[in-house]
Fold this protein.
Amino acid sequence: MLQSKTIEIIVGIFVLLGLAALLMLSMKVSNIGGPGEGSGYKIEAEFLNIGGLKTRAPVKMAGVTIGRVHGISIDEDTYNAVVVMNISNDYKNIPMDTSASIYTAGLLGEQYISLQPGGSETYLAEGDQIQITSDAVVLEEIIGQFMYNQAAGGNEDGGNGGGLDF
Amino acid sequence: MMNAVLAGVIGFIRYLGRFGLGFFERLGRAHLFLISLLLALPAVLARFRLTVVQMYSVGFLSLVIIVVSGLFVGMVLGLQGYNTLVDFGAEESLGVLVALSLVRELGPVVSALLFAGRAGSALTAEIGLMKATEQLSAMEMMAVDPFRRVLGPRFLAGFISMPLLAAMFSAVGIIGGYFVGVGLLGVDTGAFWAQMQSAVGVREDIMNGVIKSIVFGFAVTWIAVFEGYDTIPTSEGISRATTRTVVNSSLAVLGLDFILTALMFN
Amino acid sequence: MTENNNASAAADQPLVRIRNLSFRRAGRLIFDDVDIDIPRGRITGIMGPSGCGKTTLLRLIGGQLKPAAGSIDFDGMIINQLRRKSLFEARKRMGMLFQSGALLTDMNVFDNVAFPLREHTELPESMIHDLVIMKLEAVGLRGARNLMSSELSGGMARRVALARAIALDPDMIMYDEPFTGQDPISMGVLIRLIKRTNDALGLTSMLVSHDVAETASIADYIYVLSDGKVVGQGSPDEIRDSESEWVRQFMDARPDGPVPFHYPAPAFEDELLAGTRESS
């Protein structure tokens, strides 16, 4: 039988290990530490169609994740989708005339928002809206369009389905 | 002939009825037992040292099997996941696959099953033996409540240890998956962690996993402590109670997992 | 010896008074309207064949079982009506020595004896140490204080259990079959210990046993139980000379008598014939 003091120390270590594992799970494995949580500022963008975009999807500029989608709602008047993005405070200088597009990571991957910076001297701040947007590519629409073209024009080179670089 | 068949059918129905009655009787006793346990809990918390000592045998002694199993489960996930994902050119998602499988399902479930086998059976056997050798009776006669002195601390220790063990299982498993995926198979380190981080949510994945393991810890220790206390005080009774602990708590874990998953991820 | 306020009158009263006690288990009547008195400061033997409910009687007095009818009065408290808290207080004044000793297996001898002190008192560790050493000295096992309970022989385990039972200086000790399975030497040791503890500490002792000679040698008064009833009582000499058939069968170890050799069964011939009928 071990001394009770030893047992207490061992149990203390055991609890610490467990808490460390929990900490690792929440910090290293999940996205609590990444941009988009906590400090940041919010900007908006309107899309006609957001496809499969979800909250927490990354917001990227030149492929670098600079924020996350914070919320998605619908505008009662225009029936457009309003996407609120939380941009990390590290990236303050995003030009006013930046455009936002919804892309898909790979053929079947998750959708994300990509920002293409413009040339303006004024920068986006909390609550501002991005004016230039391009919608998500919906695979069914492309396929439908392609089939329609095929049927109408009998286009020979349509086989590669313009869809992918549409 | 007809009579024999009829007698057989009636015998079967009687068997079912007796089985059902026995089952509900046990279930009732288990719940009364739980009430006594919970009523003793304030006194148990007031003497937390007793629980700490039990956490050594219930929690710490289960650590080796949990860590080793977690490592191997993570490594196998890495290997299997890679072979599947590489066909789609999506091997960067290996981190996501490993982490989500572990955090949501395998971590809580497998560690609860191992916990039932390692700590649950030991708890049942220990308490059953204490009952068979009249130690519990002797405590009562010394005006010491076994619920506060023996059963409560063991229950609480199991309840606390289980989520910690499940977290360690998942963490070690992810490290195992990392070793195989990144170390052996050459998945990009950055992609492995970044994709994992973007796909795993704190609340919807990690917290739900922790909640699962808390529920499992409650169920497994409850069953283990009850079976020990309800043992027929003979050596055969103890061995049967130990078996029942492992079988019943494994079934309870799997059943509860289905219910919890349906509630959480729908 | 007892801290009772209504001193002299209470001192003459028996410590335990059992009246009209009935108890049944699984439909079988274990006690049927039994009256037993346990006088203060004496050793009272409860004897009877195995399975006649001697151990059950101790559990009834300890409040671990509830009688179907009747009352168990322990120094003015009706045990079977006490609430849990007062029952626990009453139990602190009783020590019980289980047949197996029932030592806690995860502790050594010292901690076992210290167990009731640590549970029920706030004494400093140094005082607990002294008390435990004193109790262990009384049973002659001071040197064994660091052994684990699994390392003890049956007789030693019972002596440790005795030290534990007297740790809180109870008013009464109940011995459950203390002599069973003991070699003559440790039997002699236990007999002397029971006698000495009773006299030195002014205890009331209750000795449940079926070992006739040993019990008769130290008991002041003996009850013989059989079939749920008290079939004989008196001083050891009176019991020895008793005319009662029950007592005679028990004291003389006769295989057949009021306690039949055969477990109750239908007539032997009928059952044999029934067997031939079934197989044909």
Summary: Chain B touches chain A through 36 residues (CB under 8 Å). The two ends of chain B are 54 Å apart (CA to CA).
